[in-house]
Amino acid sequence: KAGVTQTPRYLIKTRGQQVTLSCSPISGHRSVSWYQQTPGQGLQFLFEYFSETQRNKGNFPGRFSGRQFSNSRSEMNVSTLELGDSALYLCASSWVGDEKLFFGSGTQLSVL
Amino acid sequence: GENVEQHPSTLSVQEGDSAVIKCTYSDSASNYFPWYKQELGKGPQLIIDIRSNVGEKKDQRIAVTLNKTAKHFSLHITETQPEDSAVYFCAASHGGDSNYQLIWGAGTKLIIKP
């Protein structure tokens, strides 16, 4: 059974650009959530999607957005990149109503 | 806002010895407490979890204890092995149906010395 797939694995962008990250959940999982991970900061919750609808959102500026497609695949977009956006972005999927999260390996974003 | 404090940030133990990582949470309504292990280059993986109606849970060499009164919970790893070397994260649930999320600790880097 395939796990959560995130693409690309690495990205290098410059300030002011925008970026789109992709996440394919485990087959059958309809809930997808996104996290930002920086060294020493743990995981910060960005947002969660279920049935193409954003169910919950963390405390991030509006530059961070996401969406979910009918096949449960999800994308997140960061516009007007800042140096502080450099981080590992993790996607997790889960069964509906299940608290157990299954994470992908993440996309490492570097903003220069 | 709600937070989870995790200690220590780095823990180095001799192979075969036990390791204990502690977390304290602030939301008295938290009722779900998972522990995740993150190996280099990979995403976090759930290793054990506990709910607020249980005081302790074991799975082979791993155990988690919960003290609701003191609002802290701990991960115990016995007979540590080299493959236990990783970063461990604790988390606590926060919110209800429309705003549910996990609040995460900052992580503990566990080093197993041969």
Q: How would you portray this structure in words?
A:
The complex is a heterodimer of chains A (112) and B (114). By secondary structure, chain A is an all-beta fold. Chain A has no helices and eleven strands. Chain A has strands spanning 5-7, 10-13, 19-24, 31-38, 42-50, 53-57, 64-68, 74-78, 87-94, 102-103, 107-111. In chain A, the strands form two sheets. In chain A, strands 2, 4, 5, 6, 9, 10 and 11 form a seven-stranded mixed β-sheet that branches. Chain B is an all-beta fold. In chain B, strands 2, 4, 5, 9, 10 and 11 form a six-stranded mixed β-sheet that branches. Chain B has a five-stranded antiparallel β-sheet with strand order 1-3-8-7-6, with no helix packed on it. In chain B, strand 7 and strand 8 form a beta hairpin. The radius of gyration of chain B is 14 Å and the shape is globular. The model of chain B has no long low-confidence stretch (mean pLDDT 95). The A-B interface holds A 4, 40-45, 48, 55-56, 58-59, 90, 92, 99-106 and B 1, 4, 6, 9, 32, 34, 36, 41-46, 49, 89, 91, 93, 95, 98-102, 104-107.
Task: Itemize the secondary structure elements and their pairings.
The complex is a heterodimer of chains A (112) and B (114).
Chain A: E1 5-7, E2 10-13, E3 19-24, E4 31-38, E5 42-50, E6 53-57, E7 64-68, E8 74-78, E9 87-94, E10 102-103, E11 107-111
Parallel strand pairs in A: 2-11
Antiparallel strand pairs in A: 1-3, 3-8, 4-5, 4-9, 5-6, 7-8, 9-10, 9-11
Chain B: E1 4-7, E2 10-14, E3 19-25, E4 32-38, E5 45-51, E6 56-59, E7 62-67, E8 72-77, E9 86-94, E10 101-104, E11 108-113
Parallel strand pairs in B: 2-11
Antiparallel strand pairs in B: 1-3, 3-8, 4-5, 4-9, 6-7, 7-8, 9-10, 9-11
